[in-house]
Amino acid sequence: MSVNLDRPTLPSSIADGTTLYIAGRWSTATDTFERLDPSDLRRVTGIYASATPSNVEAAYAAAGGAQPAWSETTAIERSNYLRSAADLLESRVHEAALTITADMGKAIRDARAEVLRSVAILRYYAGEILQPSGETYPSADSHTMLMTVEEPLGVVCVVTPWNFPFALPAWKIAAAIGFGNAVVWKPAEPACGSAVFLTRILAEAGLPAGVVNLVTGSGRKLSAALTGNPRLAALTFTGSGAVGSRLRQAVADRNIKVQLELGGKNPSIVLADADVEDAALQIVKSAMLHTGQRCTATSRVYVDRAVAPRLRELLVKHADALVVGNPYDAATDIGPLASVEQRDTVAGYLQLAREENVQFLTRREFDSDTCYIAPTILTGVSEKSRLVREEIFGPVVTVQEVDGFDDALKAANDTDYGLSSGVFTRDIATAMTFIRRTQSGLVHINRETSSVEPHVPFGGLKSSSSMSREQGKAARTFFTTTKTAYVRWT
């Protein structure tokens, strides 16, 4: 199957290689790299600077220089910067959405929704940083008051992935700068266009020079410079487990805060008493939209044998109804994968499924010289298969039959990951038992596993996350440190 290649004109802000933003100034580097439109590999969407370790050092120097004055600004001033950035981004929703789609092929409807979500995140943190700060305690001395004071950490290194190129940086950077920290930001290479766009928004909002510094380029080449700088006070990263593990090891002997979100292999359980039609719709949305490129996407389904035939039928029906095609078309549900590399990774798992004689319930195919992968539902997969054990990060879901709740829960928990999980049931006792016994940081009852909101903690268990949570009040905990003050008077 081929895809209509009609494409709109790219935003006027297309990158020309001047994509390093350090100390309030845009610059380029000796080396650059091109990014191609995932939906049309013949079209260059931007040229980006390949930062060097010396560029990273300059970014840290700028952040360190800006940090003292920025930490002295009032919470109200910092809130106003975030509100201004939210207003500016909202006024440019269409251009920002086009940038996301050009970066990583996300369907334009989902790209627009991501931009609006990013606006909401900026506004949320503009309000959250104005919430009560610190606590007071009674003292044994009647002439002493005890209180805690929250202060910024210092310079924060933010490393973000490509799958949500606006929303994920927004929830990290807004929280970091909102609580008074300066930032050195390294986005994933496929997301550089969005990173440049968001940085321009922050600059236009009047953010002081050096508070946010952007370095584009290879994470592998810049890793040592990013983690080894003496100014580094905290590291927040979302991405693969392998990269996250290397970053954690690199700072293991440093007395800094580390926040890691490292993916998932998220199960949904469908029990015999569930609303099977609704469950099928929720699962397909979670597994297939955004081309399955969400760390919280449903990738494993365990269904009671009594309703398994009906669920499989409905899953195929909903998956086949999805419009896969030109991501710039508002009618499209699913665009291409983000890159040739990601396509090859997912295609490799599908080849493994064929070698293991797994049953394909869906049959759509796409041209092998594109980044498109059709929504794929697999069944009859061994629980020891890599298809069940590893994060595929594409529109692929496995469906396994089980004998009741206990059997399903055991299979669902049998994974190295523990980010998100869900159960579909009408029984409140079963739902509450699942909340207690599921081994995941996010739990969904009669909902898709990929749904999250910014004002509640986000994070997983096992290999999915470090112990530090993101978003909500957890962001305040991570991005600040606490002093205890003893104030005595006579």
Comma- or semicolon-separated keywords:
Aldehyde Dehydrogenase, Chain A, domain 1; 15 helices; oxidoreductase activity, acting on the aldehyde or oxo group of donors, NAD or NADP as acceptor; Aldehyde_DH_dom; 19 strands; oxidoreductase; alpha/beta; 490 residues; Ald_DH_CS_GLU; Aldehyde Dehydrogenase, Chain A, domain 2; Ald_DH_N; 5-stranded parallel sheet; 7-stranded mixed sheet
Give an overview in words.
InterPro entries: Ald_DH/histidinol_DH (IPR016161), Ald_DH_C (IPR016163), Ald_DH_CS_GLU (IPR029510), Ald_DH_N (IPR016162), Aldehyde_DH_dom (IPR015590). GO terms for molecular function: oxidoreductase activity, acting on the aldehyde or oxo group of donors, NAD or NADP as acceptor. Residues 30-484 form the Aldehyde dehydrogenase domain. The active site is at residue 261. This is Aldehyde dehydrogenase. This protein has 490 residues and is an alpha/beta fold. The chain folds into 2 domains: 20-262 and 465-486, Aldehyde Dehydrogenase, Chain A, domain 1, CATH 3.40.605.10; 266-453, Aldehyde Dehydrogenase, Chain A, domain 2 (3-Layer(aba) Sandwich), CATH 3.40.309. It is built from 15 helices and 19 strands. The strands form 5 sheets. The chain has a 7-stranded mixed sheet, with helices on both faces. A 5-stranded parallel sheet has the order 9-8-7-10-11, with helices on both faces. β8 (182-187), α6 (192-204) and β9 form a beta-alpha-beta unit. It is globular and about 75 Å long. The mean pLDDT is 95.
